């Protein structure tokens, strides 16, 4: 028998009158006078369910089919047919319906057809991919991830798996998780007693942490292979319980030799627009689902994003705009302070009403590795701010001049010894190079319009939460 | 000016007589009577260097060009020309050569044109991508990774980023790294004193670890979206200083609802063959480089791999073969023991002389989640063994029957409470499902023939080593 997916049937890859087998789960069941039942089936291949027609001549119609509830798993043999109803183009007339798994006590099944709050769904993160909304999120995330790999590949970038366990604090803020081995390596679930003794030095020979960025390592590869990118998990041990922060999140970090700040600004804009064009094309039904549920303007918002030229302004200009706008900010702003969420939102949502790139921030608020500009006050850095989110990308040209790098290390109380290999990249055939980091989950909340970042990653890790 | 890559020129995308700019690093310089110099340039886009012809009429010929050494970075404007020499089809006649970065003290440059040992290169992991061999490894890894994403996507699998930080020990062997926060969160590099106090419970509210597998989480998504896969880092806190073990490595873990053990055996074979076909096509020059350096039979070995049907035998049959082979093993083998490296190698290298799949291992040596066979003694598991490596893939059909799962949890001293959400997948619309894990770096050593796994990942993490 020809085993196919719901998408295969609904998107027309299967001709009518073909005998097929379909495997999935019941979304809903409607009965008509107990002589015919309409089963909506999903299997994750697309958001639209497939309608199955079950007549009462099926041997298990009364005893089983009339008892099917949302979430039951089934294997159905049937024939693809033109639908008589108006809701769908094709449906499947069942020849047999085999029930694989029932729902234990359907009245207490945590995922029913009714709408649940996103907060409630987080408590059943193992079951929430069965809902329409989280299923759509999963397909959108997959499509964006594929589009990113494809785009980077076509641009000549090589994927580099930079290390997760590291001895370096790239961002220099010390908000890192420590990695250690338990002194008495007991399996968690076997031990009743808590193992509170950790051996931090023994395994790796020095203190080890979870990476906050693959950038420094990616630079080593860019200084040999020209164009590289990372796509992997990164970590922040910050007690931030906001709807924009995760302790564990994924980042894409392109790093390119011979590129200047302006080159990576072009790359960033091109990457974002390109992957959203792919998304609109390949996930149109999933995106349409969000119109009613999340953001009625989602399609025009995303189409607009791909069509407009991003605004690009100097940090100094941004400060001027924020000072003259007569808006009361919680955190006062002046030249030399970092932009906070409220400032970023004003710029992108109220002033420009579009994505905006702010560049050349003061060196005092940026990391040691950013290239010092000729004014000696600012560094060749850039942030991409988008409406509704704020910063989605942060990047810079890297300091390629050894003497300037050494001066910046010193200003940041960092030692040359610790960064010996990073300095080597400047001692031996140094090149101008630049890169940026794109927070994958920030991108997800931007494209979907979903409010809380915990809902765009399968199993979110946040303070006090390492469930599932 | 038209900025292009070495590959653009060598693979013929640029017509002759085109004016181009090329940016890269010097591999070698040869001079002919100080009137003309031949510079071999690399930029990471391919293994073959581009020959640049520099005549002595260039303004900096004597003062700069004649002093160029391996590793110097340059920007060259020139014209693509048919080569007079036999070694290459095209070359570039330089109109200007701008030196971007010199080599500080060339006689001590760690990466010279001469051959270094792989062990030595590990000590300069930040510079080793500049060598031909590690550059080739990077392109091969990228090509395989892209091929895996593309293959899985075409098969209808959705990429799922399963969590890195977890409270679960999927394999049940307790060899996990602990994740904690330092009690006095000091930036590593700023603090002279060691911070030896770790707060293991406070941040996440319970003990947290680095994942050994994304499987349990992937199962939750497969039981909603049918076909999913992970591609991410996994960790083992094992003191294994072998050439096949890393503390941090990448795994691909497909997980598919409605698939049986035999279905994923077909998937595994198809995945491996497909990505190697892509590799042979897209990285042929990199692969050819390995003929002289690593494995003279690499191409026939890989082509053969894609052409033969894998052998598939029962564990029970494997034990019989190992018992009658008259070979002295260090670890004696009998029904009920696990296969060790020497046994796996005998089967794939000596007996079958080809990849071999061993299936249906005794339940006593396998994890709780594998599906119990009708004999009550074995589980529906499979390992793919390849010559030179041993196990490259391990997989199984998962236990989808709640009562059997509960029995297996009990036999393994695991509590139902701890696995409440994993049990839910069986309580609500359970389905047969299967999956496997493919170790990405094991795959890399198989395809390249490189002996030590530390040489196929950019910055290896092993006991006592968290450098770079």
TrEMBL record, chains A, B:
Catalysed conversion reaction: tRNA(Asn) + L-asparagine + ATP = L-asparaginyl-tRNA(Asn) + AMP + diphosphate + H(+)
Keyword set, alphabetical order: Aminoacyl-tRNA synthetase, ATP-binding, Cytoplasm, Ligase, Nucleotide-binding, Protein biosynthesis
Keyword check for Cytoplasm: yes
Gene3D superfamilies linked to this entry: Bira Bifunctional Protein, Domain 2, Nucleic acid-binding proteins
Subcellular location: Cytoplasm
Keyword Nucleotide-binding recorded: yes
Residue ranges constituting the Aminoacyl-transfer RNA synthetases class-II family profile domain according to the UniProt record: 139-458
EC nos: 6.1.1.22
Any GO molecular function: asparagine-tRNA ligase activity
EC top class named in words: ligase
Matches recorded under PROSITE patterns: AA_TRNA_LIGASE_II
Pfam families registered for this protein in UniProt: tRNA-synt_2, tRNA_anti-codon
Highest taxon, organism lineage: Bacteria
Stretch forming the signal peptide: none
Subunit: Homodimer.
Similarity comment: Belongs to the class-II aminoacyl-tRNA synthetase family.
HAMAP family given in the database record: Asn_tRNA_synth (MF_00534)
Protein name: Asparagine--tRNA ligase
Organism the protein comes from: Candidatus Blochmannia vicinus (nom. nud.)
């Amino acid at each position: 028998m020809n085993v196919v997916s719901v998408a295969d049937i609904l998107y027309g890859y299967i001709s009518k009158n073909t005998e097929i087998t379909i495997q999935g789960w019941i979304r809903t069941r409607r009965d008509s006078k107990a002589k015919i039942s309409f089963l909506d089936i999903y299997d994750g291949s697309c958001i639209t369910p497939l309608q199955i027609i079950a007549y009462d001549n099926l041997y298990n119609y009364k005893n089983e089919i009339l008892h099917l509830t949302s979430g039951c798993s089934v294997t159905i043999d049937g024939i693809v047919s033109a639908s008589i109803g108006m809701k769908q183009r094709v449906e499947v007339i069942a020849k047999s319906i085999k029930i694989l798994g029932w729902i234990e006590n359907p009245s207490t099944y945590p995922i029913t057809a009714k709408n649940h709050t996103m907060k409630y769904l987080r408590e059943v993160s193992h079951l929430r991919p069965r809902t329409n909304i989280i299923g759509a999120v999963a397909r959108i995330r997959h499509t964006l991830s594929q589009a990113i790999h494809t785009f980077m590949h076509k641009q000549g970038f090589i994927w580099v798996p930079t290390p997760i366990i590291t001895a370096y604090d790239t961002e220099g803020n010390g908000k890192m998780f420590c990695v250690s081995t338990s002194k008495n390596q007991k399996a968690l679930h076997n031990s009743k007693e808590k193992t509170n003794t950790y051996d931090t030095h023994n395994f790796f020979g020095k203190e080890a942490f979870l990476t906050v960025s693959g950038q420094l390592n990616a630079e080593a590869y860019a200084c040999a292979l020209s164009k590289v990118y990372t796509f992997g998990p990164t970590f922040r041990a910050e007690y931030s319980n906001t709807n924009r922060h995760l302790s564990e999140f994924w980042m894409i970090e392109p790093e390119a030799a011979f590129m200047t700040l302006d080159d990576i600004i072009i790359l960033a804009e091109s990457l974002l627009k390109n992957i959203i064009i792919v998304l609109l094309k390949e996930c149109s039904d999933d995106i349409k689902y969000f119109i009613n549920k999340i953001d009625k303007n989602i399609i025009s918002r995303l189409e607009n994003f791909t069509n407009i030229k991003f605004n690009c302004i100097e940090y100094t200009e941004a400060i001027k705009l924020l000072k003259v706008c007569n808006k009361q900010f919680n955190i006062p702003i002046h030249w030399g302070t970092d932009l906070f969420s409220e400032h970023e939102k004003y710029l992108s949502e109220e002033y420009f009403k579009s994505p905006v790139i702010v560049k050349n921030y003061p060196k005092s608020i940026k990391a040691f590795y950013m290239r010092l500009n000729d004014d000696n006050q600012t560094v060749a850095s850039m942030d991409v701010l988008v409406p509704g989110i704020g910063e989605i990308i942060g990047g810079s040209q890297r300091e390629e001049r050894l003497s300037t790098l050494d001066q910046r290390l010193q200003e940041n109380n960092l030692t040359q010894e610790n960064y010996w290999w990073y300095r080597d990249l400047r001692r031996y055939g140094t090149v101008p190079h630049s890169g940026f980091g794109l927070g994958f989950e920030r991108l997800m909340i931007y494209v979907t319009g979903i409010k809380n970042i915990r809902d765009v990653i399968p199993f979110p890790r946040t303070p006090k939460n390492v469930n599932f």
